[in-house]
What does this fold into?
Amino acid sequence: MTNESPNYLNFPRLTLGKRGNVMSEPKMGKGVIIGKNVQFGRDIVVWNYVVVGDNTTIGDGTRIGSFCDIGKDVVIGKNCIIQAQVTISNECKLGNDVFVGPNTSLLNDKFPHSGCLSPSIIKDNVVVGGCVTILPNVTVSENAVVAAGSVVTKDVPPDTLVKGVPAEKMMTKKEYDARRKAFVRGRRGN
It folds into this structure.
């Protein structure tokens, strides 16, 4: 994802249909607060007590869990899963197919209240575990994985798994995928 607005952000306002047809409004839970000029793609689900700030764009098929705080001027791509109690600070950007675990924070101001925002950027196909903090001005590149409980203080290269405080490279995405596949196979008894 670059600083330019990708084509997928040019959503028309859509209409909710009763039988899974094109939606004009996203499916909303209780107590959701939506700012001005928010753009939603198709098939969006926003659970209970979520705040979405002004001028935010959320792509097709994205799911947002309860008690999330999404700042203003945020961009969230298509088919993302944002679990409960996630904070996405003003101007942060998430690519397509991003998973963000619960209680995670994406930050944007190195010296709070400085007015000099440098938001974090999460590129396509990234997995961010629960209870992660991603500091301002950090980019997590394509296909990366951030392990649960990590504090990400510097950019994460593509196809890399990082973990720890501060987060450091632990393995490649290919190694992670092999371990994940073996774990799932073992759990299912295959």
User: Anything to note?
Assistant: The mean pLDDT is 88. The two ends are 38 Å apart (CA to CA). The longest strand covers residues 168-172.
